[in-house]
Amino acid sequence: MNTPFYSITIPSDLEAMPEAVRxxxxxxxxxxxxxxxxxxxxxxxxxxAIVNAITHANGEDPGRTVQLRLYDEDAxxxxxxxxxxxxxxxxxxxxEPQPAQLRGRGLQLIRHFMxxxxxxxxxxxxxxxxxxxxxxxxxxxxE
Length: 143
Description:
Layout: E1 6-11, H1 17-30, H2 38-57, E2 65-73, E3 76-82, H3 106-113, E4 116-120, E5 125-131
Antiparallel strand pairs: 1-2, 2-3, 3-5, 4-5
């Protein structure tokens, strides 16, 4: 496994999230993974993943942390969001939200915009992968 080009650990506090996301977006741009309007989609996925880790996995417990790591892997960028929850989360068990439902769209958005999404219950890590220009066509292009 290679070394992340960005890594930050934040407390399970939503007020700590903007700094982590700003830093990640800056590094993604520096490494050529995003440009222009692609930042919106990357920000959306980062924020949704971190909010889920803080609120659902860690229960907003300030004694728990969330780690965000970004990796260059040839033609893919790997983003990891690790929580300190129980690891009982299963993305496959999350139902599609109903049209009138106000919550529960985060995972669906992440799946749409990322090329690959996986959650390791053992490691408590959400892994998102995208290729160069994945956001250009509005997400999840497999070209």
